[in-house]
Design brief:
By secondary structure, the protein is of the alpha+beta class. It has three helices and four strands. Strands 2-3-1-4 form a four-stranded antiparallel sheet.
């Protein structure tokens, strides 16, 4: 009974943290390469004001898009995408080229994957 009680308590704690906005999501993350999308790329795009909203709506619907960030610098948006193949990536890029100039970097590997926050002043533990 104790493990079951601990799971319920943990679930209640996570739910409270979600309601408070501290925890944004809890879930399983699939490995793109093992789930049929072995090509990863980072696409930077510069978009004129009239096309921003339409582009963002298009990106929200695209299964290739993992994340899109609004940034300062040479690009307006930086988009993390996955694709089944290089021709598939090229096809996706062609669907957004009409919104502005794109710059694409193919990801060879990810030596430091996206990771969670640590409390300020805390050192990360070495892994591996």
């Amino acid at each position: 009974m104790a493990p079951q009680r601990a799971r319920r308590q943990m679930s209640a704690t996570v739910e409270r943290l979600k309601e408070a906005g501290v925890v944004r999501s809890v879930g399983t993350e699939l490995a793109p390469a093992l789930s049929g999308s072995p090509v990863s790329a980072i696409i930077g795009i510069t978009v004129a004001q009239p096309g921003k909203k339409t582009l963002i709506e298009k990106l929200r619907q695209a299964p290739e898009v993992l994340e899109c960030q609004h940034v300062a610098g040479a690009d307006l948006y930086v988009i993390n995408v996955v694709a089944r193949s290089l021709p598939d990536l090229e096809r996706f890029i062609s669907t957004i080229n009409g919104y502005g100039e794109t710059r694409t970097s193919i990801v060879f590997s990810t030596p430091i994957p996206r990771r969670g926050l640590v409390p300020p002043g805390t050192l990360r533990r070495a892994s591996g």
